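seq:
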Amino acid sequence: MMSSLAQLAEATHDATLMEHVKRFYDNGLKKVSAELGWSLENASPRANTDRGEVNS
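struct:
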């Protein structure tokens, strides 16, 4: 989803949207996913980190 928003921002020359996407990638992405695209289903500190979904 984030890559689609980045593509939309690029296609529409929307600098504000691109900045929002960049801030998420820089600050929030690692909180909800792993390097291989593994996305946690539940961000609770007590959540089972082995349960998630793959996003490409």
